C-alpha cells in the first residue's frame, strides 16, 4: 500500500507543479499588460483538476485550498469579483500555500498554516464555490483554525517512478555507491589506454611482415641443389642437420606470424567489446549519481517567501527547471551558495512594497531561480526585478577599501565594478542583519563555485534588477582533459572550458594594444603565456614567425588564449581531487596519472581566467638577473610521482628545481652544482636513505649550512627526533602532507 501511495504522490508532485506554473504565468501576463484578458476558463479548469488530484492522494488541505481557489475563479468569471491586484495577491498566496503543503507532505518540515489564506479565498468565492468538499479530518473543518497536520504514511521524499519501479528499489550504503562511481570513472580511461596496445601490435605485425619479405629474399640462396628433408626446396649445405634447422625456423616463423595475426584480431574484438560494455557501464553509473535539481532546491521558493515576509516585503518566487539533472555532489555543494544568492536578492535587491509602488512598479517583486543545462555544464540563474546594483555605492566602497583609486573607480567599466562584489568583506549594505550585509557570503560563493571548476558572475538585469549566473560541470567524475606541455611539465585542462586549440604564427598577433590579442570569431581575444600565469619563468623568445600553440579558455563569458609549449593529447581521465593530494585547490583541481605513472596537475580554468580589469602578463618578458637568482631547490625522492608532484608545486611558486632519485645521486649533484639553496628529501630510498644524506650534507663544511627538509611517511616520534637530531630543519609527514606547510617552511628557511 505504501508503494502505491508513494507512486501517487510522485505523480501528483509533478502534476500540481504544472497547474501552479500555468496559473502563475496567467497572473504574470495580466500584471505585465493590464489590458490582457487571461483564459479564465482554462485557469478554472486547472484549479478543478488540482482539487481532484489532491483528493486522489488524500491531501485534504490541498483539496480545500483548490476548491475555494476554483470558487474564486468562478466568481471572477461571473464578474462578481474583479481580477484586480488584491484578488491576484490572494490567488498568488493560495498557490504558495498549496506548494508549501505539498512540499511538507512529501518531504516533511515545519507546520504550514493555511487558515488566513483559506479565509480570504472563501470570502472571494462566496456562494459561487458551492458546498465544502468532504471533510476527512473534523479538527481541520473550521477555516479559521485550519492547520496542516502530518499525513501518517507520508514519506520524507517523493520520487517519480515508473509503474514497476517501486518493487525494484533497493537501499545500499552511500560509501559503497561512491566506490562504484570511482571504479566506473577509472574504467573507461583504462579501456582507452588499450588503444596503445593496438598500435604496438600493429607495429609488431609490420616488423614481422618486413622480416617475412627479407626471408623470402634470402630463402632461394639458402635452399639450392637437392631437396631438404622437409621437401620445400634444395640445399647445398652438407648433411641434413642444417636443412632441419632451417625448416624448423621457417615453421616457427610462420607460426609466429599466424599468432600475431590471431592476437591482433582477438585484441580488436576484445577492445571493441570492452568499449561497448565499459562505456555503457559508466553511463549507467553516471546516471545513478545524477539527481534532479529539485533534490536540493525544492524548498527554495518557500525560503524566499519566508525571508520576504520577515522583512515586510512582497516577493513571488518563480522556480523553474527543477527537473534538470546533475551530479549529486555538484548539487549538494551548490545548495548553500544558491541559498545565499537568493537571500541577497531578497535582502539587497528587492525594495519594500511602498518603494516599488513609488517607483512605478507593482508592489510584489519577483525572484526567479532557473536551472538548465548548456552543453555539458549546469547553469543556475537567480534574478530579481528589484533596484539593481548601485554602481556609485560600489565605486565609493572600493575606493574606501583601497581596491581602486578614485580616478580608476570613476572610469572603471561596470563589469569590473560588479566583480568587486565578490571580494571578501565587500558590502554596500548600511547595516548587517541575520540574512546578509557582512560581505563574506558572495566571496564564499565564488570560492565554492571555483572549487567546482565553475564561474559565477553578477550583472544588471535589463529592465531593472540583478542577475547572478553560476556555471559548473554537470559531473565531477571522469573528465575529458586537454594535455599541454609548459616548460618541463605536463598539465591538463578540462575540455569543457576549452573553446578551441590552434597554432598560429607569432607575427599574426596584434601587439599594438595593452595586451597582445588574436582575432577569433569577430572578437579580439587577449593572449598570455600560461607559464607566466602560473608563476613560472614565463620568458619567451620574441616572435619570429614560428607557430605558437594556443589553448583558448572560455569562462564566465570571457575568453583568453594561453600560450603553451606544446599541445599533447585529449583523453578521458580520472581526476584525484586537490584535497586528497594536498595541492592548492584554488589553482588546481587535482592530479591525473600519466602512462608512465607520473602525475600531471589539472588546472582550474576559473583561477586562470583574468578578472575584469586585470592586467595580463606580457607575451615576451626579458629575464633579468633577479629571475636568474631564483631560489634553487634539490628534490630527492625515489618515487617518480612524488618527485613530479613536488617539482610542479615548487615551480608554480617561482622556484627552480633539480630532481634526484636517491641520496647518492643527491651528493654527486651537490658536488657539481654551486647554487643549491635548499634540499627536500625523502627518508626511505635505495643506495643512500634520507638520514644518511642528511649526515653527509651536515658533515661537509661546504654544505653544512644548507637547509634540509625531510618529507617522509615515517610518522613515529623516534624517527622525527632522529631526523631533527641529525640536523633536519623541518620534518613533514607525507600522510598529513600540506603544500602550504611545505611552502611556509621553505619561505622561513630561505
Give structural attributes.
single chain; 750 residues; alpha/beta; 5-stranded mixed β-sheet; 25 helices; 25 strands; globular
Structure description:
About 8% of the residues have low confidence. The longest helix is centred in the first third of the chain and has 49 residues. The N and C termini lie far apart (72 Å). The chain contains 25 helices and 25 strands. By secondary structure, it is α/β, with parallel strands linked by helices. The protein has a six-stranded mixed sheet with strand order 17-10-11-20-19-18. A five-stranded mixed sheet has the order 4-6-7-9-8. A five-stranded mixed sheet has the order 12-15-16-14-13.
Helix content: 40-55%
What is Rg? 35 Å
Total helical elements:
25
The tally of beta strands, per DSSP, is 25
Mean pLDDT: 77
Biggest sheet, strands in spatial order? 17-10-11-20-19-18
Structural class: alpha/beta
- Beta-strand proportion: 15-25%
Q: What coarse outline follows from CA principal-axis ratios?
A: globular
Give the end-to-end Cα distance, rounded to a whole number of Å: 72 Å
Low-confidence stretches: 127-168, 225-239, 621-625
Q: What kind of sheet is the major sheet? A: 6 strands, mixed
Protein name: histidine kinase
Modified residues (Phosphohistidine): 48
Keywords: Kinase, Phosphoprotein, Transferase, Two-component regulatory system
Biased composition (Low complexity): 137-160
Amino acid at each position: 500500500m505504501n508503494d502505491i501511495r508513494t507512486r501517487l504522490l510522485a505523480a501528483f508532485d509533478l502534476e500540481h507543479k504544472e497547474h501552479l506554473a500555468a496559473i502563475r504565468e496567467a497572473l504574470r501576463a495580466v500584471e505585465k499588460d493590464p489590458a490582457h484578458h487571461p483564459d479564465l476558463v482554462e485557469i478554472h479548469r486547472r484549479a478543478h483538476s488540482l482539487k481532484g488530484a489532491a483528493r486522489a492522494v488524500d491531501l485534504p488541505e490541498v483539496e480545500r485550498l483548490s476548491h475555494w481557489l476554483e470558487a474564486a475563479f468562478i466568481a471572477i468569471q461571473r464578474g462578481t469579483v474583479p481580477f484586480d491586484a488584491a484578488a491576484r495577491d490572494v490567488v498568488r498566496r493560495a498557490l504558495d500555500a498549496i506548494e508549501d503543503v505539498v512540499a511538507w507532505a512529501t518531504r516533511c518540515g515545519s507546520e504550514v498554516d493555511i487558515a488566513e489564506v483559506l479565509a480570504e479565498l472563501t470570502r472571494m468565492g462566496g456562494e459561487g464555490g458551492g458546498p465544502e468538499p468532504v471533510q476527512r479530518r473534523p479538527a481541520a473543518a473550521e477555516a479559521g483554525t485550519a492547520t496542516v497536520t502530518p499525513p501518517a504514511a507520508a514519506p520524507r521524499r517523493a520520487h517519480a517512478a515508473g509503474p514497476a519501479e517501486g518493487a525494484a528499489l533497493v537501499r545500499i550504503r552511500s560509501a559503497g555507491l561512491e566506490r562504484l562511481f570511482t571504479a566506473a570513472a577509472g574504467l573507461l580511461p583504462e579501456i582507452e589506454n588499450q588503444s596503445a596496445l593496438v598500435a604496438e601490435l600493429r607495429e609488431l605485425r609490420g616488423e614481422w611482415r618486413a622480416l617475412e619479405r627479407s626471408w623470402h629474399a634470402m630463402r632461394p640462396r639458402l635452399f639450392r641443389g637437392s631437396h631438404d628433408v622437409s621437401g620445400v626446396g634444395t640445399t647445398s649445405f652438407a648433411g641434413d642437420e642444417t636443412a632441419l634447422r632451417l625448416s624448423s625456423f621457417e615453421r616457427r616463423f610462420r607460426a609466429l606470424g599466424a599468432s600475431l595475426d590471431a592476437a591482433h584480431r582477438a585484441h580488436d574484438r576484445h577492445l571493441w567489446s570492452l568499449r561497448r560494455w565499459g562505456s555503457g557501464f559508466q553511463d549507467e553509473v553516471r546516471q545513478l549519481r545524477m539527481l534532479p535539481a529539485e533534490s536540493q532546491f525544492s524548498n527554495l521558493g518557500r525560503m524566499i517567501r519566508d525571508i520576504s515576509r520577515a522583512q515586510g516585503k512582497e516577493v513571488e518566487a518563480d522556480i523553474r527547471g527543477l527537473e534538470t539533472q546533475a551530479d549529486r555532489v555538484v548539487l549538494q555543494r551548490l545548495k548553500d551558495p544558491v541559498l545565499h544568492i537568493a537571500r541577497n536578492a531578497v535582502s539587497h535587491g528587492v525594495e519594500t512594497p511602498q518603494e516599488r509602488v513609488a517607483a512605478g512598479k507593482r508592489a510584489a517583486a519577483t525572484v526567479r531561480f532557473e536551472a538548465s543545462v548548456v552543453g555539458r555544464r549546469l547553469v543556475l540563474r537567480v534574478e530579481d526585478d528589484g533596484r539593481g546594483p548601485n554602481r556609485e555605492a560600489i565605486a565609493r566602497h572600493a575606493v574606501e577599501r583601497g581596491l581602486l583609486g578614485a580616478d580608476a573607480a570613476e572610469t572603471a567599466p561596470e563589469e569590473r565594478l560588479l566583480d568587486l562584489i565578490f571580494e571578501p568583506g565587500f558590502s554596500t549594505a548600511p547595516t548587517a542583519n541575520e540574512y546578509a550585509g557582512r560581505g563574506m557570503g558572495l566571496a564564499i560563493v565564488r570560492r565554492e563555485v571555483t572549487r567546482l571548476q565553475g564561474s559565477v558572475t553578477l550583472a544588471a538585469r535589463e529592465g531593472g534588477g540583478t542577475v547572478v549566473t553560476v556555471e559548473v560541470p554537470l559531473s565531477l567524475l571522469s573528465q575529458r582533459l586537454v594535455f599541454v606541455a609548459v616548460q618541463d611539465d605536463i598539465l591538463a585542462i578540462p575540455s569543457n572550458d576549452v573553446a578551441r586549440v590552434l597554432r598560429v604564427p607569432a607575427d599574426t598577433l596584434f601587439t599594438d594594444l595593452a595586451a597582445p590579442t588574436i582575432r577569433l570569431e569577430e572578437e579580439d581575444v587577449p593572449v598570455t603565456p600560461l607559464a607566466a600565469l602560473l608563476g613560472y619563468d614565463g620568458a619567451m623568445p620574441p616572435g619570429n614567425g614560428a607557430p605558437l600553440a594556443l589553448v583558448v579558455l572560455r569562462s564566465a563569458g570571457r575568453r583568453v588564449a594561453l600560450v603553451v609549449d606544446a599541445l599533447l593529447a585529449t583523453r578521458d581521465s580520472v581526476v584525484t581531487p586537490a584535497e586528497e593530494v594536498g595541492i592548492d585547490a584554488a589553482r588546481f583541481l587535482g592530479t591525473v596519472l600519466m602512462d608512465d605513472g607520473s602525475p600531471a596537475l589539472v588546472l582550474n580554468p576559473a583561477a586562470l581566467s583574468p578578472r575584469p580589469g586585470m592586467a595580463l602578463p606580457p607575451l615576451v618578458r626579458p629575464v633579468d638577473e633577479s629571475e636568474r637568482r631564483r631560489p634553487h631547490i634539490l628534490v630527492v625522492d625515489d618515487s617518480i610521482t612524488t618527485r613530479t608532484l613536488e617539482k610542479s608545486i615548487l615551480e608554480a611558486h617561482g622556484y627552480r628545481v633539480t630532481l634526484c632519485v636517491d641520496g647518492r645521486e643527491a651528493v654527486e649533484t651537490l658536488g657539481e652544482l654551486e647554487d643549491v639553496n635548499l634540499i627536500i628529501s625523502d627518508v626511505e630510498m635505495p643506495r643512500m636513505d634520507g638520514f644518511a644524506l642528511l649526515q653527509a650534507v651536515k658533515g661537509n663544511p661546504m654544505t653544512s649550512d644548507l637547509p634540509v627538509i625531510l618529507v617522509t611517511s615515517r610518522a613515529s616520534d623516534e624517527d622525527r627526533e632522529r631526523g631533527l637530531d641529525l640536523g633536519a630543519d623541518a620534518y613533514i609527514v607525507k600522510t598529513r602532507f600540506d603544500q602550504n606547510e611545505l611552502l611556509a617552511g621553505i619561505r622561513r628557511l630561505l
